[in-house]
Design brief:
2 strands, 62% helix, two-stranded antiparallel ribbon
Length: 230
């Protein structure tokens, strides 16, 4: 007898676009800062876009679709422990342990983008808010460099987890973040609600993303006309 595998939408389009745009920005930021020189202009652009993405994701984590909301996937430490011991079956969306990884990444990436606004390399580039307070700028510049290693570690763990799920659990998390769907037989229960991914929800995301973008643009206007951003 052939078993029909039902699929449901887990990741809405705004969440998927956020994820892959963030991947591009983090990769671009890392490469451009290592190359240096005139490539720092691209580092600035990637940093500002990253800040915009993080602001949007924080808002979307409250006002977005079902599985994008923090209150849906952030669980207690006891729930994480029970999940690791196999007492909780597969869950739609982020699993309890993966949720903590998501929060750690958002915090680290968010701090990197925020501190970049104040950072100053004393050579070519300075953040739009670096001139507000020299000591504060020096402190955040140091933390900006230190957090780079934290971010590298978190991204490495994230990639390792994806590979582990692919090899050991036979779950393609990358594909799910591309098409947004999950197989019904890999989820808990017989009836799992899908994410709201209508055009109304997407227009809502566009409005929120526009507001976040305007906020970041306003920050850049605080920089003196002759200064660079980061």
């Amino acid at each position: 007898m052939t078993t029909t595998i039902a699929k449901i939408r887990i990741w809405d389009l705004p969440t998927r676009l956020f994820h892959w745009t963030l991947v591009i920005c983090i990769t671009g930021s890392f490469i451009s800062v290592k190359v240096g020189g005139l490539w720092m202009d691209w580092h600035v652009r990637f940093g500002l876009i990253t800040l915009w993405l993080i602001i949007f994701r924080l808002i979307w984590g409250v006002a977005g679709s079902r599985y994008a909301r923090f209150n849906q996937f952030v669980r207690s430490p006891r729930t994480v422990w029970n999940y690791l011991r196999g007492r909780i079956p597969h869950i739609a969306g982020h699993n309890p342990l993966g949720a903590y990884s998501v929060i750690a990444l958002l915090l680290s990436i968010g701090f990197q983008a925020f501190s970049g606004l104040f950072a100053n390399d004393d050579v070519l580039t300075a953040g739009p808010l670096a001139s507000l307070d020299e000591s504060w700028s020096a402190t955040l510049t140091g933390l900006h460099k230190l957090n780079e290693w934290v971010l590298i570690g978190l991204v490495s763990l994230h990639i390792a987890a994806i590979l582990w799920y692919r090899i050991k659990r036979r779950k393609n998390l990358v594909a799910a973040m591309i098409h947004g769907n999950a197989q019904m037989n890999a989820l808990t229960g017989q009836s799992v609600p899908g994410a709201q991914d209508s055009w109304k929800m997407r227009l809502k995301a566009l409005a929120l993303a526009t507001a976040a973008g305007l906020a970041v643009w306003w920050l850049t206007t605080l920089a003196p006309a002759a200064d660079s951003f980061y």
